[in-house]
Amino acid sequence: MLQTFRCQPISSIVSRSLHPKCSRFCSKHPRTFLQETCRRGQVPTTSAIARSFFRNFSSATNWEEPSGYDTGIRVTNSLRKDRVKVPLILSNKNVATWYACGPTVYDSAHIGHASSYVRFDIIRRILSEFFSIDVVQVMGITDIDDKIIKRSQESDISFSQLTKVYQDEFYQDMDNLNVLPATLYTNVTDHVPQIVAFIQQIINNGYAYAAPSGSVYFDVQAFGPQYGKLSTDNMDTGEAGEPNENLSEKRNARDFALWKSAKPNEPWWTSPWGNGRPGWHIECSAMASGIFGRSLDIHTGGKDLAFPHHTNEIAQCEGCFRSDQWANYFLHSGHLFLKHDVNKMSKSLQNVISIREVLQKYTANQFRLFCLVTKYNNDIEYGDETMQNAISLANQLSSFLSDSDAYVKGQLMCQPIDEAALMQRLSEVRDQFITALADDFNTHKAMEGLMDLVQLGNKQLQNTSKDTSGARSPGVIAAISTYINHVLNSLGVQFTQRNSPGSTASTRTLTSVLDASVEFRNSVRQWALDSSNSMTQNDELTSKEKKKLVMQERAPVLIACDQFRDGLADSGIQIKDRSKEHGTWEFVEKPSKTT
User: Fold this and answer.
1) Under a CB-based contact definition with an 8 Å cutoff, are residues 298 and 338 in contact?
2) Backbone dihedral angles phi then psi of residue 414, each to the nearest 5 degrees
3) pTM for this structure?
């Protein structure tokens, strides 16, 4: 056994298993065999230490499947370095505990943030709506850090005034994007006592130390090979700490600040180590653990957070609780890139587009469809071409739902529909859709099947006919449109519809007024287009000349009908003249005009 360990002397293994103060074999390094051996008062053999070390090194690079409720979903868990999809198993049946890294509120959120929040909102809705899982989601808000302090000083306002402005703006942005609010939002400044207690426990366990300045650092070397579960390409060259940390007082360059000592003219809180404020990484560990305790089902964030932020969160929690697995699943969203820009969207690179800017150009549904057609953990390119594709999808979906409504009500006539083919495709799409969602939330594949069904339905409905005596199939069209509308609503794509179950009294009143107005317009337009009811008496005119004269006389009426239609279009209501006898109306989405 020892011969296989030539690259690392056994003394180094033993040193990792000694208590940093008393130099006795201790339960802290590593955490399995040595813990039980020391409790029995025995001194382990060197071969036993080696076996324990390799076992713990293996656990540092491999994820342990939790016990509990199997959801039937397989996910790409970032804790598995082989990227093999694994079953999503929850600690409690039909309940998922989920911590999400929220914004640092020193500036407006951009669409890189938006794509991540929308994509995880879609996953949250999938869990709730398609797999009957109640999601308890906590989102941490960073309302104190170096960037906030710098921006508040530049703006000559207090940090709390600055963060309130941008936190409120963030909530409004999420509402505008139809992102469900978290079950609970936690602010760092509201949890400083809990953070201090969390840091103290890590110190007590031997994984952190206080520097003479009053700062406290996590001791990566003392933590051992467990560190780096979410290692990434930049881990070997990057540092685990934050910018502006005092390297001279660290034991190791990879150590990172849990508590930062106070500097002149900066906010501070009291602690056993002196005045200061929390480091960036510790806040999420402490706030998540304060709500969920020693373990967590799901942790999410952008893949740029895997190292160092999420890596350090794991070390802090496992160091505090002396556990081998804190969060069972880490899901990371892909980056958003601007077309022709190789860098991900970032405020530091000044290549950002704010959420409010994009919602002045596109609707929330269009942006959500833009996110839906790519898998959540793939990178996504934002540009005119990709957004035009999203607009096209939105138009196809909206048009199908509108035409289906008109067909079911007898306002749209078409050739006989192939009921058997449509019902067969509906059944197939239902199964394929759930299968795709259960495969690591593959919305790209799920949407492909859904759009295939929409296109098949549209093809049938667009084969219009003036013959009102042919066979009709409102049942199958209603079944398909109901399913598609249910799926879209469940995913957060919510087209405004005249008969929406959530309609308010004022909306229902508006619907009644529009129904009556459009019906009146239909009657006027039908009269104006029918020359046979003309009162003109001139036997010298041919029927063709008489019809032309009637149309000239009634042209102002038809112009007024068109002006009425165009006026409503400016307000987001579109009238469609299905025939001389029938016209329908529908709501049409428009980007926000607010700034």
Assistant:
1) no
2) -150, 175
3) 0.82
